[in-house]
Amino acid sequence: MVMNNSVIEFILFGLTQDAGKQKAIFGVFLILYLVTLMGNFLIVVTIKTSRTLDSPMYFFLFYLSFADACFSTTTAPRLIVNALSQKKTISYNECMTQVFAAHFFGCMEIFVLLLMAFDRYVAICKPLRYTTIMSQRVCGVLVILAWVGSCIHSSAQIVLALHLPFCGPNVIDHYFCDLQPLLKLACMDTYVINLLVVSNSGAICMVSFIILLISYGVILYSLRNHSAEGRQKALSTCTSHFIVVVIFFGPCIFIYTRPPTTFPIDKMVAVFYTIGTPLLNPLIYSLRNAEVKNAMKKLWCSKG
Questions:
Q1: Are strands 9-12 and 171-172 parallel, antiparallel or unpaired?
Q2: Between β-strands 89-91 and 171-172, what pairing exists: parallel, antiparallel or unpaired?
Q3: Confidence of residue 141 (pLDDT cuts 50, 70, 90)
Q4: What pLDDT is recorded for position 70?
Q5: Strand partners, 257
Q6: Which of 10, 46, 244, 269 has its CB surrounded by the most CB atoms within 10 Å?
Q7: What is the DSSP code (8-state) at residue 257?
Q8: Cβ burial, residue 157 (10 Å; 0-12/13-18/19+)
Q9: Which regions span the lipid bilayer (predicted)?
Q10: Cβ atoms of residues 62 and 48 within 8 Å
Q11: The whole model's pTM is what?
Q12: What is the pLDDT at residue 2?
């Protein structure tokens, strides 16, 4: 249901209105976006073609890289094009689609990170039952549940967005459509809707972050009984995962778990989790993981 709406398009303010800075934004973010796509695509292809990367951890990493590439694609191309465009408009329908896609793939990333933490917990804390608990069928069902959960979350977000009436102005002080900047333009009292946003997006971010912290705490505690070599390998893997968790959840919690107030730093924080995290993930997982690096070398050697 779309309420009384006289606005058919929005103007995206972007990161800045300075012409010189916009050219720099175009160049920098175009490079970052292309590197993000190539890095995540390389991981997806490597895991799909490698016979050695067939464990549940890499099964989940495949979907994390896929979600990263899609998540970045929901925001980066529009930011890059608008940096050199005179007409920085986005239609109402495109804006609503962007809200849905950003929350869908962002939530998908959260759920996959939870699955990866669960996988590490079972592998380290219950090694004898690992193959039974994390069977191929179980992993497949868990990923399906992650897709369904993401769809439910993003559907809730789009329902809230579609119920916002817009009668002008139509300038979004952001570089992509999200509920927080849209709430500022709505011709109604948005206090209740903001509470719903916080209880939805904010709760998912905060609860997931707490669960992840607890799971890694349990993992670290259980490592005291492992050999030095096993402890070092487990710590290396968990450190990679924990770095990703911190750089993703920190900005998300800052944005989605607070009252309806905006700060000048909001857009830069959003850049970090919509563009920065998808860029850093493949670097973290490939540079810190010997198995992935070896599989990549074999892939390129076979191509050569």
A1: parallel
A2: unpaired
A3: very high
A4: 96
A5: none
A6: 46
A7: S
A8: buried
A9: 24-45, 57-80, 100-118, 138-160, 201-223, 235-256, 268-287
A10: yes
A11: 0.90
A12: 44
The sign one gets for the Cα dihedral 151, 153, 156, 162 is negative
Q: Answer whether residue 84 shows pLDDT above 60.
A: yes
106: burial class by Cβ within 10 Å (0-12, 13-18, 19+)? Answer: buried
Phi, psi of 186 (to 5 degrees): -70, 140
Q: What's the number of CA atoms in the CB half-sphere (13 Å) around residue 90? A: 27
What local confidence, expressed as pLDDT, does residue 304 receive?
A: 53
The rounded radius of gyration (Å) of the Cα atoms in the chain is 21
Question: How far does CA 112 lie from the centroid of its chain?
Answer: 10
Integer Cα distance of 176 and 273 in angstroms: 13
Residue 56 has pLDDT above 80, yes or no: yes
- Chain segment 249-298, per-residue pLDDT in tens: 988 998 888 776 777 788 889 998 899 899 988 888 776 677 787 887 77
Task: Write down the architecture of domain 9-303 according to CATH.
Answer: Up-down Bundle (1.20)
Q: Where are the domains of the chain?
A: 9-303
Residue 11, beta-bridge partner list = 89, 171
Position 147 scores a pLDDT of: 96
Length of the chain: 304
- The DSSP letter of residue 166 is B
With beta carbons less than 8 A apart as the criterion, state whether 225 and 145 touch. no
The token duo for 189 is: 């009292």
User: Can you tell me the mean pLDDT for 224-241?
Assistant: 75
Q: What CA–CA distance (Å, rounded) separates 265 from 267?
A: 6
Name the phi and psi angles at 11, rounded to 5.
-110, 120
The mean predicted confidence, pLDDT, of the chain is 87
The residue type of 130 is: Y
- Helical (H) or strand (E) element with 89: strand 89-91
